[in-house]
């Protein structure tokens, strides 16, 4: 019997050491990433579909969770207790029931029919309306899991993935309520971006004809002195990347706001982030049209549904790394100047003190 108690005590000690060896907040990280990994294993094709047809947004949210956890892992103190674990299990159970209903009961069809019943424009399978609810459910899950463990005061340390999911949900709702070109203010951005893209294509030797009335760009390729019609691209505000510009600029602004820098520099970083995000989107549309002319519509569509969004992600990471590195260099420079200045002052004080000490005996 004593051996049994000894083995149990050693096992408990080993388990406790294992918990202490885990990085802070690691349990929360697992709770956030495991559902995405499970969805990937269950339906990998859904992560490769178009922006409002699949779950690529959940991958971006998982990346932002990982980014925020890595940045603030030193602040996530404490281990989940029984109350927190109970909340986590309840949240995981709710999320599991939701996706079970999606895969086995046809919940998405019910949500789509409910949207039509509420008066939303009827679209094929109501992709945006359905995706809005999935992003809201996942945002709620991440919020509950984090809030139950670390409280509302620390929510700023995990605000990026939640803001991203809620922002995407708003964009999905706008697309569901105002499809195609019906949302005038956002559709107006199309008439700014497409002429720039047409000019860039002209520099590449590709002739285009832009018809603002129909929002179509006709693409031609010249071979052996003959112009060949390669295809027409119809642009609406979601397809032209307006939602990505809004979301990623919002993410950049949130992350820049958390950096320890002066307000003028934060404003400058946000401005550069906005210009860079707009430029990335212009080049994304350019590549889509370029591939229509050179590779065909199928290749261009595949690029649009996959690599296009990755360009925004790469830009966001690169931009934030540059900002963080710039701030580190500025802070190190400021510290060295501060230390150097104090060193000069101290040396002067020591010199004055030595003169006084030497001069004192001569005065007596």
Proportion in β-strands: 5-15%
Q: Given the helix and strand composition, which structural class is it?
A: mainly alpha
Total discrete domains: 2
> Count of DSSP helices?
12
- How many β-strands, per DSSP? 3
Query: Spans with pLDDT under 50 lasting ≥5 residues?
Result: 14-19, 344-364
Whole-number mean pLDDT: 79
Helix percent band:
over 70%
Q: How is the main sheet built?
A: 3 strands, antiparallel
Shape: globular
State the order of secondary-structure elements, H for helix, E for strand.
Answer: HHHHHHHHEEEHHHH
Give the termini distance in whole angstroms: 88 Å
- Computed over alpha carbons, the radius of gyration is 28 Å
Widest sheet: strand ordering: 1-2-3
If you had to describe this structure to a student in words, what would you say it looks like?
The structure is a single chain. By secondary structure, the protein is mainly alpha-helical. The chain has two domains: 8-179, no CATH class; 183-320, no CATH class. The protein has twelve helices and three strands; from the N terminus they run ααααααααβββαααα. It has helices at residues 2-21, 26-42, 56-72, 82-105, 107-117, 127-150, 159-177, 184-203, 242-257, 263-294, 297-305, 307-363; strands at 206-211, 216-223, 226-234. Strands 1-2-3 form a three-stranded antiparallel sheet. A hairpin with a 2-residue loop joins strand 2 (216-223) and strand 3. The protein is globular. It starts with a helix and ends with a helix. The model is unreliable at 14-19 and 344-364 (pLDDT under 50).
């Amino acid at each position: 019997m004593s051996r049994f108690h000894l083995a149990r005590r050693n096992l408990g000690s080993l388990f406790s050491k294992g918990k202490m060896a885990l990085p802070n907040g690691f349990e929360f990280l697992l709770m956030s990433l495991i559902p995405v990994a499970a969805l990937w294993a269950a339906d990998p094709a859904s992560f490769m579909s178009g922006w409002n047809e699949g779950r690529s947004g959940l991958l971006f949210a998982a990346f932002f969770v990982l980014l925020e956890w890595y940045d603030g892992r030193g602040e996530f103190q404490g281990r989940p207790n029984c109350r927190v674990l109970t909340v986590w299990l309840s949240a995981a159970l709710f999320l599991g029931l939701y996706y079970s209903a999606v895969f086995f009961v046809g919940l998405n069809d019910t949500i789509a029919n409910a949207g039509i019943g509420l008066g939303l424009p009827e679209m094929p399978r109501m992709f945006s309306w359905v995706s809005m609810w999935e992003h809201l459910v996942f945002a709620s899950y991440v919020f509950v899991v984090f809030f139950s463990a670390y409280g509302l005061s620390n929510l700023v340390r995990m605000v990026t993935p939640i803001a991203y999911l809620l922002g995407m949900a708003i964009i999905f709702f706008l697309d569901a309520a105002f499809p195609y070109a019906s949302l005038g203010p956002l559709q107006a951005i199309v008439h700014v971006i497409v002429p720039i893209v047409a000019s860039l294509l002209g520099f590449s030797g590709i002739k285009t004809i832009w018809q603002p009335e129909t929002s179509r760009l006709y693409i031609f390729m010249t071979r052996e002195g003959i112009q060949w019609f390669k295809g027409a691209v119809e642009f609406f505000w979601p397809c032209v990347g307006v939602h990505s510009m809004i979301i990623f600029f919002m993410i950049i602004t949130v992350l820049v706001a958390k950096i320890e820098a002066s307000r003028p520099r934060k404003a400058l970083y946000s401005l550069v982030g906005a210009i860079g995000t707009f430029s990335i989107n212009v080049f994304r549309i350019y590549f889509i049209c370029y591939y229509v002319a050179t590779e065909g519509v199928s290749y261009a569509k595949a690029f649009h549904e996959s690599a296009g969004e990755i360009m925004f992600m790469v830009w966001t990471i690169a931009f934030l790394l540059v900002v963080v590195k710039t701030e580190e260099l500025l802070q190190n420079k400021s510290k060295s100047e501060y230390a150097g200045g104090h060193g000069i002052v101290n040396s002067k004080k020591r010199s004055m003190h030595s003169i006084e000490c030497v001069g004192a005996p001569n005065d007596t």
